[in-house]
Amino acid sequence: MRKSTKLALAFAALAGAVGTTAYAENNASAKMRDDMMMRLDKTMRDSNGTITFDQFSDAMNARLKKMVADNGGKLTVAQLADALEKARYERMAKRIIERYDTRGDGTLTTNDITSRQKKIFAVLDRNNDGKIDKSELPKGGRFGRHRPSGANDEDGMQ
Question: Where does the record locate the signal sequence feature (predicted)?
Answer without folding.
Answer: 1-24
